[in-house]
Amino acid sequence: MSIHDQFDATFKALASPIRRQILDDLKDQPLTTGALCGHFADIDRCTVMQHLKVLEEAGLVIAERRGRTRWNHLNAVPIQDIHDRWIGPHAAAASARLARFKQAVEAQ
To answer: Residue ranges of the HTH arsR-type domain (predicted)?
Structure first.
């Protein structure tokens, strides 16, 4: 998978509020699929599993089987890759412009 395909998969996965909530739920610790399903009373287990599949395909979730239990782990590397590629450089450029503007105003 090319880096552009990876970015597309990550953005697609992040487009859903349910998938973002799953990632938030996994932020502090791995959770079983059953525990994740318990966080979404209004959707069934099959739907949660479909969302987990999209997250896995994007590399945002790593599933580990322990017997009959599936543990879901957050992999934040694809999010960090997006930050490094877009957010960091754009924020740095905006900060630099604001610093120049501040200097120009203070010089007057």
So the answer is: 9-84
- 78 neighbors 14 (Cβ within 8 angstroms): no
Task: Give every CB contact of residue 74 below 8 A, 6+ residues apart in sequence.
Answer: 23, 26, 27, 30, 60, 61
Minimal CA–CA distance to 4: which of 82, 93, 66, 64? 82
Cα–Cα distance measured from residue 105 to residue 108, given in angstroms and rounded to the nearest whole number: 5
Q: In the chain, what are the domain boundaries?
A: 3-75
Multiple choice CATH, 3-75, 1.10.260.40, 1.10.10.10, 2.60.40.290, 1.25.40.890: 1.10.10.10
The model's pLDDT over 51-104, given as tens digits with 9 standing for 90+, comes to 999 999 999 999 999 999 999 999 999 999 988 888 877 777 788 888 888 888
Residue entry with tokens 């990550």: 10
